[in-house]
Every structure is written in structure tokens, then in C-alpha cells.
Amino acid sequence: MKKVIWKFEIKTTDGQQIDMPIGAEILTVQIQRGKPCIWAICNPLSENEKRTFEIYGTGNPYPSKGQRSYIGTYQEAGGGLVWHLFELIKL
């Protein structure tokens, strides 16, 4: 089965769920044309699952409960805002 790289737009908000193919491997988060996006290697024939992502700004509190996987960091407002994206693995 051939896999493909897909892009998923995200919002700069505390938490959100994104439908992604089961087993999607996240590559990076970056800004494209002013919008934050996640790129992932996906099996286009896989069913979707909801995955939970959280964004924390530099200097803001980071929760002590739950397991998270760091995805990456991106900047907005000419570098005036720096955001760190994590995937929530489990509470």
C-alpha cells in the first residue's frame, strides 16, 4: 500500500481534535500562507480516528497531568508569538 503525505490545518487554540487516518505518522508543524499546519504520512485507505492536540505559548503554564508527545514549535506575528504543539496521548 502506498502512503501519502497529507496536510492538516490547525487553529492556534488550547485544544482541538483532528480526524486523521489511523496510524498517521506526524512529520512536522509549520506555518504555510499564514496558517499553522501539520504534515503527516498517511495511508489513504485507512479509516479516520480523532487525535487530540494542545498548543502552549512560551511562558504559559504546562499541565502536570497527562502524557503528551511534542510535535514542534511554530511562530506567528513575525516571531512575536511562539507556540508549542503537543499531541495528548492519554490523561
Descriptive account of the structure:
The structure is a single chain. A hairpin with a 2-residue loop joins strand 3 and strand 4. It is built from no helices and seven strands. Helices cover about 0% and strands about 65% of the residues. The model has no long low-confidence stretch (mean pLDDT about 95). The strands form two sheets. Strands 2-5-7-6 form a four-stranded antiparallel β-sheet, with no helix packed on it. The protein has a three-stranded antiparallel β-sheet with strand order 1-4-3, with no helix packed on it. It has one domain. The termini are far apart. It is an all-beta fold and about 90 residues long.
Quickly describe the structure.
By secondary structure, the protein is mostly beta strands. It has one domain. It contains no helices and 7 strands.
What is the terminal-to-terminal distance?
33 Å
**Strand elements, count:** 7
Tell me the β content: over 45%
Note poorly predicted spans: none
Structural class of the secondary elements?
A: mainly beta
Sheet with most strands: strand arrangement: 2-5-7-6
In round numbers, the mean pLDDT is: 95
- Secondary structure: helix percent: under 10%
Assign an overall shape: globular
Largest sheet: 4 strands, antiparallel
**How many distinct helices?**
0
Total count of domains: 1
The rounded Rg comes to 14 Å
What is the H-and-E element order?
A: EEEEEEE
